[in-house]
Write a structure and sequence with these properties.
0% strand, mainly alpha, 74% helix, elongated
Amino acid sequence: RRRHTRLRRDWSSDVCSSDLDLAIIDFTSAIRIEPDFAPAYVGRGRTYELLSYQSEYKDIPDFEDAIADYTKAIRIDPEPRSAHVYKWRAYILGRQGNHEAAIEDYTKAIMIDPDDPFLWSNRGSRKQWADRENNYSSNYKLSACSDFKKACEVSGGKDIFCKAVEEDCDGIFK
């Protein structure tokens, strides 16, 4: 475990110095030492995700690597204390257009951390995207608006979350 702690510290400094390739090597080493250490998969997945944002290509293979590592971490620890792994995987799935899977992951993240307004808001956004792609034939409009309303509530009324209720859900809750 000491080695994992050092690798985590090294990863943080690698990310700060933008040496993400070195962070990948560090996490891969940790996984070789202890293949069932979920945080190493989460860290490597997050690093793959950060690398993918630096790519100039739309179809980014590193997203697949990130999803694979997040999925492996979830298999090892299906009930993590932190919602991050579900949130990060949901975000990528949503960017790829896999809205249903993203909604499922946001739902799991909300079960872990129901007071995070970003989770509610992001799930509502994914529901909107799914509704649009179904030519507005799904029942996601009301559900998305309920998520936006909850995001507004748990944020304490912050504008960033409450605007969606005003702009996208006008008249639904009246």
